Each structure stands twice: as structure tokens, then as C-alpha cells.
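[User] Once you have settled down, look closely at the record that follows, and write a paragraph about the fold.
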Amino acid sequence: MMRMDRPPSTMPHAIITLTTDFGQGDSYVAQMKGEILRVNPDVRLIDVTHEVPAQDVTRAALILNDIVELFPRGTIHLVVVDPGVGSTRRLVAAEMAGQRFVGPDNGLFGCVAKRHPPTQAVRLDEPRFWRQLPAGSSPSSTFHGRDILAPVAAHISRGVDLGEFGPPLDDALRPTRLPEPVVTPGGIVGEVLWIDAFGNLITNIDGSLLAPIAGRVVIDIAGQRIVGLSKFYAEQPAGALLALIGSHGLLEISVCCRSAAEWLHALAGERVSIEA
């Protein structure tokens, strides 16, 4: 068992990414960073985003899924989108794709786990790795990100094995709840998953589903019809509605040089139907 009076040496070039729904207007992100740096002042902190829509676990899971393969082995991903904070939902650390993940087990890690099954996953039940508090005090029931998750991520960055933090999980990580497109002989029916900063509508329809019919698809959304797929945004004139397979590998609905969300008055959940 590791002795806390002789902490392990810091892992060289340790990286912790942070993804939250905290926004930038409050001190929450800085509090977490301060706790991490208290434990490991040499770690590199990378902000993925703190603008996840409030309590949107699915959006955070998709963001994490987008970035994981772009970071080096050994990266630690700290994700705090936690509408169940203080409840019986469990806090976990897991190793997947040669990287470590720390956060609440509420679906945040389901997309990554589906592609990269965990090689190790534990509950964060060991208080000696939590925030150091005065005798008799307990972690805040509303800010486990600061009091439990941030210090655990920092200790991992110092080389502590995941097995030190608590017992192995006796079941799978909770899956991410994603709507699946419906594929029929007549076409595909899906929906908008999210809207990016440019107003592009990102759907749940994977580009691989369209490959056999890419040259002859007809897409209906919000009362508008798009014939065929574009290869890039500027392939169509400014203000034109278009569809393409974006960098996520998913079907996007866009308007060249404008916001498709505003142009179509569309929101997440908008129905998208495709026929050949």
C-alpha cells in the first residue's frame, strides 16, 4: 500500500484536460485548478471547454469522444457535468485507450467505453486522496468536482495506480443515452444532436450510412429539402442550405456563411429524414 508521507514522483509531462458545464463567470473552474495544482504544481492543464450546456451529460460525452484519440497516451481527462451531485451516483476513475478518465458515472464515459472498453475501472471511495479538509469536515455535497474529482485526477498525474483509489467496479460504466437513427428500406430517419458555435446542425446519422447512396440522397428538415451532399461549406454560394459529412463523421446541415439553426429555426431534436 502506498504511503501518503512519501508521494510518488510526478509523471513526466502529465496532462489533465478539464471539461465542465461551469461556464467562465464563476470561480468553480479556478477552484478545481487550484486543488489540482496544490497536489501537483507541475501538471499541464488543458481546458477542453467549460461551456457544455448546463447538466447536458450527453453533449459532454460526445465532446469527450471527439477529443480522446487526439491526446497522447497517459492523458487524464477530468469531466464534471454532474446533475446528480451529492446523490448515490458513483464517482469513478477508468483507463481506456491508454488514457485515464475521472468523473461521475452518469453516462459521461459511455461513448468512449463503447469504442475502447475499459482495462480498469474503480470507485473513488478512498478519502485519503480527496481534498484535505479540517478534522471533522466532509466534502461539499454540491461540489465533488473540487473536493473529490480534482484531487484524484492530480494524484493520478503523480503516478498513483487506479487500484489505490477504491474497489474495482462490479459492473459496466453507465452507457451514454444517444438517440439512434432508424434505418428502413426506404431511407433513414434521425435527428439533430447538437448545434455548434457556427449554427451547424450536427445529426446522429453517421456518414457511413450514407456512403452507398451519397450521390442521390434527398434530405428533409424543418420543411426544407436538400438534394445531394456537398464536400465542403463553400461549395455552395453564401446563404445556400446544404448538407455534408462533417469532421465528426456525422451528417451536418449547414448554410454557407450563415447559421443553419437560425435560418431553419431548428433546435436539438429536430427530425431529419433521408431518402435515396
In short: The chain has six helices and 14 strands. The radius of gyration is 21 Å. The longest helix spans residues 144-157.
